[in-house]
């Protein structure tokens, strides 16, 4: 099995200050496990390597514009971010991609939405289809939230989706491991970054 870089893309989900850094909105829940896991450094190396192989890296950001955009307050999660929406404005410090993800190259594409799935409430599925992309490699935080939601959604849209297992993490090891087990069954399966790079070479 191998993958053609011309028909493959990375979806890099929620690598934002609000999710990754202690000062971010979800910092109290996620910053410590993210730092302990080393996932940021691994994801930076992976993104750099796949870019060198010709694979585009598309970042998604959870933002809430004035008027709430397409935010639907139908879960506790969406109510919480809706109540704190000033922190999620597109130009707010917390909504920005973390600096580590901007080096050594700017993202190929940055897509904003107000959904848990990075493929919902935006034109990203059309953007991918127009470029002949059929395989998606998913990185991001948290495994059991945006990563799992996006991977399942992409699978239902007809993409072949692999979560890059060492480039995702969650608030607890238990949630992370359980989510990866779900994704092994519900998608094309999880791969390590090393396995992915082997399949692209």
Automatic annotation (TrEMBL):
Keyword Ribosomal protein: no
Pfam family, one: Isochorismatase
An MF annotation (GO) of this entry: hydrolase activity
Keywords from the named record: Hydrolase
Name the record gives this protein: Isochorismatase-like domain-containing protein
Organism listed in the record: Planotetraspora thailandica
Residues of the Isochorismatase-like domain: 8-195
């Amino acid at each position: 099995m191998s993958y053609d870089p011309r028909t493959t893309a990375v979806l890099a989900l929620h690598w934002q200050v609000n999710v990754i850094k202690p000062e971010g909105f979800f910092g109290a829940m996620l910053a410590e496990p993210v730092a302990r896991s080393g996932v940021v450094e691994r994801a930076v190396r992976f993104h750099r390597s796949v870019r060198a192989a010709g694979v585009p890296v598309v970042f998604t950001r959870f933002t809430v514009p004035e008027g709430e955009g397409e935010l639907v307050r139908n879960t506790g999660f969406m109510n919480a971010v809706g109540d704190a929406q000033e922190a999620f404005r597109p130009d707010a410090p917390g909504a920005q991609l973390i600096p580590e993800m901007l080096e050594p190259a700017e993202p190929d594409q940055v897509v904003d939405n107000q959904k848990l799935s990075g493929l919902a409430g935006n034109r990203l599925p059309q953007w991918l289809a127009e470029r002949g992309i059929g395989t998606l490699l998913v990185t991001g935080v948290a495994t059991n939230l945006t990563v799992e939601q996006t991977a399942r959604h992409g699978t239902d849209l007809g993409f072949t989706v692999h979560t890059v297992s060492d480039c995702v993490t969650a608030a607890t090891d238990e949630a992370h491991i359980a989510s990866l087990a779900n994704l092994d069954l519900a998608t094309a399966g999880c791969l390590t970054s090393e396995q992915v790079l082997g399949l692209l070479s």
